[in-house]
Specification:
single chain, 463 residues, alpha/beta, Rossmann fold, pyruvate-formate lyase- activating enzyme, OB fold (Dihydrolipoamide Acetyltransferase, E2P), six-stranded parallel sheet, five-stranded mixed β-barrel, 13 helices, 19 strands
Length: 463
């Protein structure tokens, strides 16, 4: 009973958490298998940001529970945000679950599974599920192990900060992830150095509010925030070619961070900058501490620092009290910023958040209509920006074969996916690719012969 499959729902933080759990389990002698059909232990790492994400995970757990009734030794565990949010209450709906582990206890999973295995091998009946959702000091420092996989690994996530103190009225993350906690800077730099030594060329620094990194633990130095100091340290590491980060908060973009994009060449020309709404009244209702104009000012500052800058964002439509005029403000902001990509969500009631009981809940039909209208605006803009790159030569960090296995794939400095033909030995290298065609989200091109030069073209600035 040592074959484990981990199915992950939700954000990049969850992906990174799953990878760390997998690495810890492998070190303990467990086998990580790619298919849930081949596993003895199924772990669902869950998301609670939207109700649909929770219902999807609950549906999968219910389906797996049917297998457990056929195979009593099969182990089913629920990890992460939904486990943290619902805790032992999950057992009322899913009584066959063996393990419920919250967001600050991922590092305990190998111990809990060892205990379950030992009990079963000894023939000891397990009377009740293991439920562990308590907080634990220093838990942010445990997400540091990386799973070794087949082939060369080019990109890696590095968790630098967990938890959130922002208290946006729509968000359940402070409840599921706890208070803001940062890892020591030296530990993060050491982890990035180790990754570079294993062939990683791009690191993405992760946190719930990544730009708040270290604000309680490190002083500002020479006008630089702790987060900018960390970017500078990672920038110095030989072998690391690109640095990205997510998810930031607009309030973290002071001059030291925006100017870093003009003086740290390894910072990719892409920022994920969540806006949530283009209406000041809705932003206030969301408890977002910036205005529409301040957000646009940040965009202008970033474009001044790096004219080739591309933006992605998060937007909620149908927040309580949102009028047609409020939605129009969001739509026009999207046109003004001209995003490369956006995650658009219909507002989802999350029990326990202030927004859940606000007056003016928007009907589902209105939310759906606004969602589709905004998606069309963003799709058209993304396609326009993609096609503007046809004929340009882009620097691509080659990640390896594409999904078909017939071509190579990688990403530009602005985080656009590129597919092209070339030899597999290019994985992990920077290649010049001439863009010949484009879709909404993907560029297609041909490899430029070595020595032909790199003539990169940026998307036209919209601000």
């Amino acid at each position: 009973m040592n074959r484990v499959h981990i199915k992950t729902y939700g954000c990049q933080m969850n992906e990174r958490d799953s990878e760390a759990v997998a690495a810890m389990l492998r070190a303990r002698g467990y086998r990580i298998v790619p298919s849930e059909d081949d596993c003895d232990i199924l772990l669902l790492n869950t998301c609670s940001v939207r109700d649909a994400a929770e219902q999807k995970a609950i549906g999968k757990a219910g389906y797996a529970a049917a297998r457990k009734r056929r195979e009593p030794d099969f182990v089913l565990g629920i990890l992460g945000c939904m486990a943290q949010n619902r805790g032992a209450d999950l057992l009322e709906r899913l009584p066959d679950v063996d393990l419920i582990v919250g967001t600050q206890k991922f590092h305990r999973v190998p111990d809990y599974l060892d205990n379950l295995r030992a009990a079963r091998e000894a023939g000891i009946p397990i009377a009740e599920a293991i439920v562990e959702t308590g907080s634990e000091e220093g838990s942010q420092n445990t997400i540091r192990d990386h799973m070794e996989g087949p082939g060369r690994r080019v990109c890696a996530f590095v968790s630098i900060q967990q938890g959130c103190d922002m208290n946006c009225t729509f968000c359940i993350v402070p409840r599921t992830r706890g208070d803001e906690r940062s890892r020591p800077m030296e530990d993060i730099v050491r982890e990035c150095e180790e990754l570079a030594g294993r062939g990683v060329r791009e690191v993405t620094l992760l946190g719930q509010i990544v730009t708040s990194y270290g604000r309680r633990d490190h002083p500002r130095e020479a006008g630089a925030s702790p987060f900018v100091q960390l970017l500078e340290r990672v920038h110095e590491i030989p072998g690391i070619e690109r640095i990205r980060f997510t998810s930031p908060h607009p309030r973290g973009f002071r001059r030291d961070l925006t100017e870093a994009f003009s003086r740290l060449p390894k910072l990719g020309e892409h920022v994920h900058l969540p806006v949530q709404s283009g209406s000041d009244s809705i932003l206030r209702a969301m408890n977002r501490p910036y205005s529409r104009e301040r957000y646009l000012e940040i965009v202008r500052m970033l474009k001044a620092a790096q004219p080739a800058m591309a933006f992605s964002t998060d937007i909620i439509v149908g927040f309580p009290g949102e009028t047609d005029e409020d939605f129009e403000r969001t739509r026009t902001l999207c046109e003004e910023v001209d995003y490369d990509m956006a995650y658009v969500f219909k507002y989802s009631v999350r029990t326990g958040t202030p927004a859940a009981t606000m007056p003016g809940q928007v009907p589902e039909a209105v939310r759906e209509r606004r969602n589709q209208a905004l998606l069309e605006v963003l799709r058209a803009g993304s396609l326009r920006r993609s096609t503007s790159l046809v004929g340009a030569v882009q620097e691509v960090l080659v990640e390896g074969p594409d999904k078909t296995g017939m071509r190579l794939s990688g990403r530009t400095r602005a985080n656009r996916a590129v597919v092209f033909e070339g030899p597999g030995r290019l994985a992990g290298s920077l290649a010049a690719v001439a863009i010949t065609d484009a879709s909404v989200s993907t560029l297609y091109g041909s490899l430029v012969p070595a020595g032909a030069g790199l003539q990169s073209a940026a998307c036209p600035a919209s601000l």
